[in-house]
Design brief:
Helix content of chain A is 29%, strand content 20%. Chain A contains 6 helices and 9 strands; from the N terminus they run ααααααβββββββββ. In chain A, a hairpin with a 7-residue loop joins strand 2 and strand 3. Chain A has 2 domains: 72 residues, no CATH class; 108 residues, Jelly Rolls (Sandwich), CATH 2.60.120. By secondary structure, chain A is of the alpha+beta class. Chain A is globular, with a radius of gyration of 21 Å. By secondary structure, chain B is mostly helical. In chain B, 64% of the residues lie in helices and 0% in strands. Chain B has 10 helices and no strands. The longest helix of chain B has 21 residues. In chain B, 42% of the residues are buried. Classes of the chains: A alpha+beta, B mainly alpha. At the A-B interface, helix 1, helix 2, helix 3, helix 4 and helix 6 of A face helix 3, helix 4, helix 5, helix 7 and helix 8 of B. The structure holds zinc ion. Zinc ion binds next to helix 3 of chain A.
């Protein structure tokens, strides 16, 4: 049972397309696991549809329709032509059982990424960075071993966590598959995985403006780590 | 909002409706199933001006006329190519076209940002799902007359409808709205939440009369 959801403001910024790519990815992963937020999103989309319906009309240019149909015609001629493209590459099988049940957006993300490279961050915690074509946030999987206690830490930027497998807890509660959490910088916490199961989360950490200039640099989200 | 359309909307609020039977949704089905160009032309005549109007409202930009034309081309092209996947029991034509337009905007912004690794990565549709198709429909009676939503919007206090309209029409984040209006971010967020709460009745299908102020 999912108990932690993105708030209405985040959902609205997802629905209007203004949410940055990495954060939208996390919201999308949650929505694909959460019927309640799917329902909210549908309602927000309906609201967008109602506003589109009542927008002040502005006539398009006189050649707008003919331009459009020229494009339609040429795309249909193209698709009618014998296919010369190479056969589609079968997507790599996701062998990791912790990820095979992940929501579609995460599975798609895995297919567009090179094989995961897990790095030890601290005792009981490993991270694998994901390439998402943007540099304003770091997107990674975090994996906490069975029963491991992660060292107390905080973040330099806002962190969004979506639980994809297993569960973990901290002083504020227990989080299981599908749960969506937002932590502000400076909110110190100490996650602990459940005894009998590993835990895997998607983590999106907003990079502080000062360091985003270095494209592709791994910004360790646990830089704020303190000795346990 | 035009007063006469609002009056018309109020008049139809009393009608019940759960499955989309409106003219535009039916035309969209004709485009999808029969590749009917006459139906597509009628959709174009209706939606192209709405889309362009939406974009022009994005405000103060000298290139908004050009951008409006480009957006019309892109959105309507996608409407043509994706219409076979349109399911009228899941979304009204307005809503479906709204989500396509939003994705075109996201696409355009993303192309401007032009980060390495962009081409091989996820597509906008992977992150912003247009159809929400992989999810079960949990509430069957969910698609109500959009006119009741419009009516409920018309009843919101101006300060709440203003931020909600800016968000959807202009595609702005709370932060952008806050800088534009010179309001604290927290104020913008709480106005959005209050407004959405009041719209909840109309969005969930209750009649607008039951929406409490
Ligand atoms: Zn949710």
């Amino acid at each position: 049972m999912i108990e932690h959801h993105p708030d209405q403001n985040l959902l609205l910024e997802y629905a209007n397309g203004s949410l940055p790519w990495a954060q939208a990815l996390a919201v999308s992963a949650h929505i694909q696991m959460c019927p309640r937020c799917t329902q909210h999103l549908r309602q927000l989309n309906e609201l967008g549809g109602a506003l589109l319906d009542q927008s002040t009309a502005s006539e398009p240019a006189s050649d707008s329709w003919s331009r459009l149909m020229a494009r339609v015609d040429s795309s249909e001629a193209e698709s009618a032509a014998p296919a010369t493209a190479e056969p589609p590459v079968a997507p790599r099988k996701i062998s990791d059982p912790m990820l095979s049940g992940a929501p579609p957006v995460i599975r798609k993300l895995l297919h567009t990424n090179p094989p995961l490279h897990w790095q030890r961050v601290s005792r009981g915690l490993r991270a694998a960075r994901l390439v998402t074509g943007q540099a304003s946030s770091e997107v990674a999987f975090h994996r906490i071993s069975c029963g491991a206690k992660v060292a107390e830490h905080d973040h330099r930027g806002q962190e969004i966590t979506v639980v994809l497998y297993g569960s973990f807890s901290d002083a504020d509660g227990v989080y299981s598959v599908g749960d969506f959490l937002v932590r502000q910088p400076g909110q110190v916490h100490r996650p602990t995985a459940t005894q009998d199961q590993e835990c895997l989360c998607l983590s999106v950490v907003e990079a502080p403006v000062a360091v985003t200039g270095l494209l592709g640099r791994l910004i360790n989200p646990f830089l704020g780590i303190r000795p346990a | 909002m035009m007063p006469n359309s609002q009056d018309r909307d109020r008049a139809t609020v009393q009608q019940t409706g759960s499955i989309r039977q409106d003219e535009w949704s039916q035309l969209l089905v004709a485009v999808g199933t029969q590749r009917n160009r006459a139906a597509f032309e009628r959709l174009f005549a209706h939606y192209a001006p709405q889309i362009k109007g939406f974009q022009i409202k994005q405000g103060g930009r000298s290139d908004s006329y050009e951008a409006g034309e480009e957006l019309v081309q892109e959105v309507m092209f996608r409407v043509w190519t994706r219409a076979p996947g349109y399911d009228p029991s899941r979304a009204s034509a307005n809503t479906w076209i709204y989500t396509i337009m939003r994705n075109c905007r996201v696409d355009a912004l993303r192309r401007q940002a032009c980060r390495p690794g962009l081409d091989e990565g996820l597509a906008v549709e992977d992150v912003w799902d247009e159809a929400l198709d992989e999810q079960p429909l949990v509430y069957l009676q969910q698609y109500r007359e959009q006119s009741s939503i419009s009516a409920a919007l018309g009843e919101l206090p101006e300060e709440q409808s203003q931020v909600i309209e800016k968000a959807f029409v202009e595609g702005k984040s709370h932060q952008e709205i806050s800088s534009e209006l010179g309001l604290p971010l927290g104020t913008v967020k709480s106005r959005v939440r209050l407004g959405l709460k009041k719209l909840q009745g109309a969005l969930a299908g209750k009649k607008s009369q039951e929406v409490k102020r």
